[in-house]
Structure formats: structure tokens, C-alpha cells
């Protein structure tokens, strides 16, 4: 029986279970209802009052009835809820499945040595690596357009790879602009409103987050209500907004919403009650949008209640023009909701105008430099009544063709996504836009909570990047930077340019236009401007993408008129003489931009910043004194001039011999001290020479080491000597005339130990928390409190498993020679569950050579050596002096009853 099991540390992993959002179901799935939701009729339809010339009647006089058009439901096939949509699932599954596993317990008691834990099979962070930095979101909702209008025969009119059967092309000629948008931008062919049919109220729910069948309805942060309540920063609008959309507001409309929005079109008729308000799902209160932005007279609604209050229809042209005029006057809001229906809810649907105005709104925004790179536009449908337009056209399937429009910098173009996106995804994208949360590259550790998106836990996990299939994943836009140095100065001005690029697709190519008619294709060129003027140097960077992207950056350089160049003149008097030579220098400058600054370098290691300095040369030689003049231009100009000085020796003799030479021995060295000669020969001493020998009178010149090539000093230390050897020394002085006589001889004997006291083991007490430089079995080095250390926090615990097991601990060292003591010591504690007088479990301490062969077994310990504390053990390693050896502990257990060998505070001390 195993009575002891080593405890194994484990880390608990938190598994996140994500539950997908279920789509709504209808009780009468697969059957087309005769009236109401899901039917092909609309409320208040009166065929007896449906005139053929409804399209010719003025706005406001068109009867509120429904005229069937070419997009009717006759013969349409109705599928069960979700049948089509479930063919195109989301690309990732973030669900986490737990499984049971057994974990060992170290130091187990009461015969319980394992436990059962739940661990996840995967833990995936759902956030995508990239989300574009949009700040505007525009929804354009239209009426009754089918997959035919978008796709046609997809393989020939859009691109290969469409889902489902081949589409029909019979409607493309009526909506050429819509078809062109679908082909140019990204088309969602599996988008779902989450309800059946995907009619007007469902799209209103999409924008206000009210759909009872959408996951957005399931959980709201306290006190924030609908999407519009989030705009208004509360669960109700400003005071006096009222609950009747047909009654003028009486309140002041004060307050500041966190973001701005505009709706354009008769939104109220789509609300399920038809009464012009919606109910806050958080409070159940009826609400009306404020007519104007709180605190301003800027409208939040355009044409908001013509039909709801006056029974009046507005044409698509009026809707589009008024919306674009609003944008021109007030700027593009964070959110825009634009209805291009032309039938609120009935009479005449002008297909051609609807198509043209959709294209007008898209082209205006995407053609505006201020909005084209920061706006996402969704063009989607109110109803998708398909009729007999092809085998893939099935009504009530959740699927709504939707075009997503954005800059090619961030979004795929000419692309069809088969990912099953829903209102939850689009609403999450709008939330990201409204709060400008995490634009660009995402930190995978970002927490997406209810304060960021009003969604359920499942949504938060699955929608880290709500429309990830559409983006150029992980890409950042190409950008360029340009710099110039200097940026100002007189002509001719030499400028160094520096260019760099980030984002896009490397490698890059560079093209400079210097603004004076010259160009260059190197990354960091130099260029000289010869004429006065202000120049804009433009760098164009092109990346290696296909198609390639370009980015530009500018640097401005200002060149002043050409003036007289800066010049410098240097003079000296005298220019030669016997040392010491005292020279007066004169500096002058002209041209450039006064005032000037002066800098002299006298050529002998000394300098001066005076214009007219004096300087004394004390050593024989020929010197070049250089004057550098700097003017006050920006950037400053410099000019230089030089003069030659000759310092001749004086009439003199070589110096006398140094006096008072002493030599003092040390450990492998001798220290020398002496006095200068009483007579320098009339010329300054420039250096000393040291001679050394191992016999009296046998000294030779030292040219290296501590006493070789010494300068004007009176001491030095000769190193690298052999202890016990007698060394003899003499010293001479040198001046410009030559070397003088040698000093009297001095001698000394280096003494000292060749084995300084030291400790050779690394990490002797294991306090680094790792084994290195020890080599150890897994788990040997530990800070487990079950077996406490002799000192500190860590020790080496060998064995202790209560089963057949072997642990090792070893370290290699090199023993020096010349030492008197070689002591190996360690503290050992033995803990055992064995009984009796037999040595079952053993610890051997061995010395191995560099080849791994055993040189000696120092001692063998066993379970019979168990003790209550630690005992220190010492061994001499003197027989192995000068060798590289390995000290090795080997602990072995038999098949039952544990024995633990715990080692701490080891050392190999030599002296």
C-alpha cells in the first residue's frame, strides 16, 4: 500500500461557457398567413380604393392602400423558421466543454491521494485582432428587394462562390445601382433580423434594440433602456417630450446626449402599436423621441410623423435630398437611420427612384473626404418578398440581403460573406462606433462587458469583433512620415531627408519630390537647394499589396538668400622657438551671420574658446593649431583656419639619475618608488624608463605591463611576477635631449598565497527557486512547507513518493590547485515511514570525473539515518585538486513506504 504521495501543484482554469442565441420560431412555420405579420398584405389595404394612377398624385393625397408591384408574394414558398439561416453558421464556436481529470495530492493523508477536478477542453478569447476606427454608422432601409436584385446570376454578374441555387437576372435592369453596390462592396447573403418576416418593425428593432426575438432584448444594463435611451443618457428624453408624436413638445429640450443621431423617414408607422411610440424594455414606459437634439434646435428627426399624424407619403427623392442637406449643414451624426420606402405603408413604390437615391446617399458619403474612411453604411431591406424568382428565393427564412459599405482601407471589396450575421452583430458594431471602443488593433485581454455593449453574456463572448469576416483582418492602414534636417538656412542649403512607413504590406518603395523639380527614389536621400524659397518635399510610399496602396507625407524647407560665405583666419606669433615657447594667437572671421564664436585646438591636447588666446608649448615638436569659427545662422555655419608652431629643444644635457629607488614585494607583484633627478639637464623630464632582471646587474628595459612606458611619474607596480623569485630594478629619466643615467639598484621578492579562500558551488542553498546550476530531477528543488528547509525558503527534496522511484541532484565544479583545504559540506534531514532495521531506501553521495565515471562514493545514507532535524556532513575533496569533478546525490526508494532525503545549505570551500 502506498502511504505517502507527493503533492503536485496545479492551476485552476476558469472555463467560459457560451450559449448561442436561438432564433425565434413561429407556430405556423411553413404556412403563409393570409393577413398580418408574414403575409403579403399590409394593414389598411383597401383594393377598392387603389387607383392605377397613384404614382401621379401629389404627396399627401395618395390613399393609404397597398398596390402590388413586380415584387409580389404570388406563389412564394415559405420555409420553417431558421431552416435556411442555419445552413450558414457563425465561423467560430466559443463553447467550452469541461471534462473530468484526476489530480495527485502531495502529502496526502487518510489514504486519500487523488482528487477529481473539472478542466475545460479549450479556453478561447473571442476578440478579433482588428476593428476599424469608424466613428459613423448609417443604416439605409428599403422595401421589397430580393436576392435577385443584389446577386442576379451570381457566378456571372457578381463572382463565383454564392450560396444556394443560381439566382435569376430578371430584376437587375430595374436596380442597376443596387446591383453595382452589391458587386463593389461586401454583401451579406446570410444576414438575419432574427424574426419572421424580416419586415419594417424588425429593422426598427435593429436600430432601437427592441426586438423581442433578438438576444439584445434579453438583458439590459440597469437604467439604460433602449439604444435611443443610451443616446439620451437616460431612460427618458428631455422634460416635455410627451408620449404623442403628433403633439408639439412643450419642454425646453435641455440636456446633452452622449452621441448624436438622426432618423429620416416615417419611422412611427412601423412600430407594432402604430401609435408613434415604443416601449422601453427596461421600464415598460411609452416614449417619444425628442424632435431636436437636446439643448439645440438641430433636428434629430426628419419627416418623422407625416404618415403617422397626417397620412402623408414622402418620396425617396425628398428623403434622400433632405438627409444629405442635413449632413451638409450639421455634419454626419454618429448614427443615421434613413428609410427609402416611398410607400408608408402603401400606394406606389418607385423602384427606379428608390435605386437611384440609395446610390446618391452612398456616393455622397463615400465621396466625402471627411467621412469616406470613418463610416460604415448598411443597405438592407424591409421585406424580402420573393415570389417565383428562383428556387433559392424562400420567404420567411430570416435571410435578408444586406450590403455593407466602407473604405477599402478597412473592409474587403467585391466580397460575399456567407457568415450568418444577425441584428446582434450589427447592433454590437453600432455600439462600437458610438463609443469608439477599441479602434484599430485590439488587446486580446480587453474585457467587453455590459458597460460597453448592452448584450447578454453569450453575445459578449461571441461578438468580440461583431463583423469580423468583413474586415482586412490584422491589417493597419499604410502611413508615411517625412522629416528634413535642417529645415532652414542660406542657399546653397544641403538637407538630409528621412522617410519611413508603417502598416500596409511590406516591403515598401519610396519616391521623393523635393519641390524644386528634382526627385529621388531612395528612402533617406540628401538634396541641396541652390535658390531661395520655401519648398515642400513630398514623400510617396507604395506598399507591396495587390492592388498596391500609397501614402504621402510632407516636409517643408525654407531657404534664405545667398550671402557671403563664412571664412576664418588664424595667426600666431612667434611660430617657432626653444621650449618653453609662449605663443600669442589671433583669430578673425568674416561673412556668414555674425556674431561669431571661436574654438582653438592647439594641437597638444589643450583648447581655448577665446578669440585671441595665448598658449605655452613645453615639449619639443611641431604642432598645428586649428581655429574653428561658428556663426549665428540657423543652422549654424562653420569655417576653420590653422597655423603651424615649431617647439625646438633648448641647449642642455640629458637628466641625472633618479634617486631613492625602493622596491616592495607583494602577491605576484613589486611596487617601485623613486625621486626625480637632482638635475634635469636644463630641459623638462618627459618620461622614465624602468629596467628589471632576475640577477643583480642583469636588468633589461620593460616595455609592457605596469612599469612599461611610464610617463612623468615617480612610482609604478610591476605585476604578473612569480612569488618567491627575487627581482632587481633600476630607473632612468628622459628629457628632450635624451635618456639619463640609471639609478642605484633595488630588489624585492613577491610573496602571497595562490589559493585565495572561496566557495565554489552555485546556488548552494537553492534560494533562486530553480535548480540551476544544479541538474535535478523534476520537483526536487521546492519550497513546500511539508519538508521545511534548514534556512531560507527553498531546499532539495529527493524521493518521498512511497513507491519505486529515483531522484538525482548534481553539479560540476573545477577544483583549483595550490590550496590547503578542500572541504565539501551539506545539511541533511531524513524523514521515513519505513520501520525495522533494514536499509530499504538509500541516498548515495559520489564524486564523478568529467567523463561521468565514479571516482569515489563518499557516503551512503538510508532510512536508518532518519532524524528529527538537520545534520551537517563534511568530506575532503583534496584528492581531486586541479580536476573538473561532478558532485552527485542519488536517492532511491523501493516499492512502498516513503523516505524523504532533504538537502540544504551545501558548500565546497577551498583555502
TrEMBL record:
What are its GO cellular component terms? plasma membrane
What's any GO biological process attached to this entry?
Answer: polysaccharide catabolic process
> Low complexity bias located where?
247-257
Region feature (Disordered): 36-68, 235-257
Biased composition, class Basic and acidic residues, residue ranges: 52-68
Specify the domain of life of the species encoding this protein.
Bacteria
Signal peptide segment = 1-24
Membrane topology of the entry: Multi-pass membrane protein
Example of a GO MF term = hydrolase activity, acting on ester bonds
Per UniProt, residues of the PKD domain are: 478-564, 566-647
Q: Where in the cell is it found?
A: Membrane
Q: Which UniProt keywords apply?
A: Carbohydrate metabolism, Glycosidase, Hydrolase, Membrane, Polysaccharide degradation, Repeat, Signal, Transmembrane, Transmembrane helix
Family annotation (InterPro entries): FN3_dom, FN3_sf, Ig-like_fold, Phosphoesterase, PKD/Chitinase_dom, PKD_dom, PKD_dom_sf
Which residues are in the Fibronectin type-III domain?
A: 654-754
Matching PANTHER family: POLYCYSTIC KIDNEY DISEASE PROTEIN 1-LIKE 1, POLYCYSTIN-1
Name-wise, this protein is PKD repeat protein
Q: What is the scientific name of the source organism?
A: Kutzneria buriramensis
Amino acid at each position: 500500500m502506498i502511504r505517502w504521495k507527493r503533492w503536485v501543484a496545479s492551476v485552476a482554469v476558469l472555463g467560459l461557457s457560451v450559449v448561442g442565441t436561438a432564433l425565434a420560431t413561429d407556430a405556423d412555420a411553413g404556412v403563409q398567413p393570409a393577413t398580418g405579420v408574414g403575409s403579403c398584405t399590409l394593414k389598411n389595404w383597401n383594393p377598392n380604393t387603389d387607383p392605377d394612377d397613384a404614382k401621379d398624385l401629389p404627396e399627401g393625397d395618395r390613399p393609404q392602400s397597398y398596390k402590388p408591384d413586380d415584387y409580389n408574394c404570388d406563389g412564394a414558398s415559405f420555409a420553417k423558421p431558421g431552416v435556411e439561416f442555419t445552413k450558414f453558421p457563425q465561423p467560430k464556436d466559443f463553447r467550452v466543454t469541461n471534462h473530468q481529470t484526476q489530480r495527485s495530492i502531495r502529502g496526502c493523508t487518510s489514504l486519500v491521494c487523488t482528487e477529481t477536478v473539472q478542466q475545460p477542453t479549450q479556453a478561447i478569447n473571442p476578440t478579433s485582432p482588428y476593428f476599424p476606427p469608424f466613428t459613423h454608422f448609417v443604416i439605409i432601409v428599403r422595401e421589397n428587394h430580393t436576392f435577385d436584385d443584389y446577386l442576379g446570376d451570381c457566378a456571372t454578374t457578381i463572382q463565383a462562390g454564392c450560396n444556394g441555387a443560381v439566382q435569376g437576372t430578371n430584376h437587375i435592369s430595374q436596380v442597376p445601382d443596387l446591383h453595382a453596390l452589391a458587386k463593389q462592396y461586401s454583401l451579406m447573403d446570410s444576414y438575419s433580423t432574427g424574426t419572421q418576416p424580416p419586415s419594417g418593425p424588425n429593422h426598427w428593432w435593429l436600430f432601437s434594440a427592441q426586438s423581442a426575438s433578438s438576444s439584445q432584448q434579453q438583458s439590459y444594463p440597469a437604467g439604460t433602456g433602449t439604444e435611443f435611451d443610451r443616446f439620451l443618457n437616460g431612460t427618458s428624453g428631455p422634460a416635455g417630450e410627451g408620449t404623442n408624436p403628433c403633439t408639439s413638445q412643450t419642454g425646453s429640450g435641455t440636456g446633452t446626449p452622449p452621441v448624436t443621431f438622426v432618423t429620416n423617414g416615417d419611422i412611427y408607422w412601423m412600430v407594432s402599436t402604430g401609435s408613434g411610440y415604443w416601449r422601453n424594455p427596461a421600464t415598460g414606459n411609452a416614449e417619444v423621441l425628442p424632435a431636436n437634439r437636446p439643448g439645440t434646435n438641430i433636428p434629430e428627426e426628419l419627416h418623422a410623423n407625416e404618415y403617422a399624424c397626417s397620412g402623408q407619403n414622402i418620396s425617396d427623392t425628398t428623403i434622400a435630398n433632405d438627409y444629405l442637406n442635413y449632413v451638409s449643414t450639421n455634419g454626419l451624426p454618429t448614427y443615421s437611420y434613413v428609410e427609402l420606402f416611398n410607400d408608408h405603408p402603401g400606394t406606389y413604390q418607385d423602384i427606379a427612384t428608390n435605386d437611384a437615391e440609395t446610390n446618391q446617399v452612398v456616393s455622397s458619403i463615400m465621396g466625402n473626404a471627411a467621412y469616406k474612411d470613418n463610416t460604415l453604411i448598411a443597405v438592407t431591406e424591409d421585406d424580402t418578398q420573393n415570389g417565383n424568382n428562383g428556387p433559392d428565393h424562400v420567404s420567411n427564412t430570416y435571410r435578408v440581403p444586406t450590403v455593407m459599405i466602407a473604405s477599402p482601407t478597412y473592409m474587403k471589396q467585391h466580397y460575399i460573406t456567407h457568415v450568418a450575421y444577425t441584428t446582434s452583430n450589427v447592433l454590437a458594431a453600432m455600439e462600437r462606433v458610438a463609443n469608439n471602443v477599441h479602434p484599430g488593433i485590439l488587446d486580446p485581454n480587453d474585457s467587453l462587458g455590459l458597460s460597453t455593449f448592452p448584450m447578454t453574456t453569450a453575445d459578449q463572448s461571441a461578438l468580440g469583433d461583431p463583423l469580423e469576416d468583413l474586415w482586412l483582418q490584422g491589417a493597419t492602414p499604410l502611413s508615411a512620415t517625412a522629416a528634413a534636417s535642417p529645415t532652414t538656412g542660406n542657399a546653397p542649403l544641403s538637407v538630409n531627408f528621412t522617410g519611413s512607413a508603417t502598416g500596409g504590406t511590406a516591403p515598401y518603395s519610396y519616391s521623393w519630390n523635393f519641390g524644386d523639380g528634382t526627385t529621388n527614389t531612395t528612402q533617406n536621400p540628401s538634396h541641396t537647394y541652390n535658390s531661395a524659397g520655401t519648398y515642400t518635399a513630398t514623400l510617396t510610399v507604395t506598399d507591396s499589396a495587390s492592388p498596391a496602396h500609397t501614402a504621402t507625407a510632407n516636409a517643408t524647407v525654407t531657404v534664405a538668400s545667398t550671402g557671403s560665405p563664412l571664412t576664418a583666419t588664424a595667426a600666431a606669433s612667434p611660430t617657432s622657438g626653444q621650449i618653453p615657447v609662449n605663443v600669442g594667437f589671433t583669430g578673425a572671421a568674416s561673412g556668414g551671420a555674425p556674431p561669431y564664436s571661436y574654438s582653438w585646438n592647439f594641437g597638444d591636447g589643450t583648447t581655448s574658446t577665446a578669440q585671441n588666446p595665448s598658449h605655452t608649448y613645453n615639449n619639443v615638436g611641431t604642432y598645428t593649431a586649428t581655429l574653428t569659427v561658428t556663426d549665428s545662422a540657423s543652422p549654424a555655419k562653420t569655417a576653420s583656419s590653422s597655423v603651424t608652431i615649431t617647439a625646438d629643444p633648448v641647449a642642455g644635457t640629458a637628466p641625472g639619475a633618479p634617486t631613492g629607488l625602493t622596491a616592495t614585494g607583494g602577491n605576484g607583484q613589486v611596487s617601485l618608488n623613486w625621486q626625480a633627478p637632482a638635475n634635469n639637464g636644463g630641459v623638462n623630464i618627459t618620461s622614465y624608463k624602468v629596467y628589471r632582471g632576475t640577477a643583480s646587474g642583469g636588468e633589461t628595459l620593460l616595455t609592457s605591463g605596469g612599469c612599461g612606458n611610464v610617463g612623468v611619474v615617480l612610482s609604478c607596480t610591476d605585476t604578473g611576477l612569480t612569488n618567491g623569485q627575487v627581482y632587481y630594478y633600476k630607473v632612468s629619466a628622459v628629457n628632450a635631449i635624451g635618456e639619463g643615467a640609471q639609478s642605484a639598484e633595488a630588489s624585492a621578492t613577491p610573496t602571497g598565497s595562490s589559493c585565495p579562500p572561496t566557495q565554489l558551488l552555485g546556488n548552494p542553498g537553492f534560494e533562486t527557486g530553480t535548480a540551476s546550476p544544479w541538474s535535478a530531477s523534476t520537483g526536487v528543488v521546492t519550497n513546500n512547507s511539508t519538508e521545511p528547509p534548514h534556512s531560507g525558503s527553498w531546499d532539495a527534496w529527493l524521493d518521498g513518493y512511497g513507491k519505486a522511484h529515483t531522484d538525482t541532484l548534481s553539479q560540476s565544479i573545477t577544483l583549483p590547485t595550490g590550496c590547503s583545504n578542500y572541504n565539501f559540506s551539506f545539511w541533511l534531514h531524513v524523514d521515513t515511514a519505513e520501520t525495522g532495521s533494514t536499509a530499504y531506501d538509500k541516498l548515495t553521495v559520489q564524486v564523478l570525473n568529467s567523463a561521468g565515471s565514479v571516482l569515489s562514493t563518499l557516503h551512503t545514507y538510508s532510512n536508518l539515518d532518519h532524524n528529527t532535524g538537520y545534520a551537517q556532513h563534511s568530506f575532503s575533496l583534496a584528492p581531486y585538486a586541479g580536476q573538473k569533478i561532478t558532485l552527485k546525490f542519488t536517492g532511491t526508494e523501493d516499492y512502498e513506504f516513503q523516505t524523504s532525503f532533504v538537502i540544504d545549505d551545501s558548500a565546497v570551500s577551498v583555502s
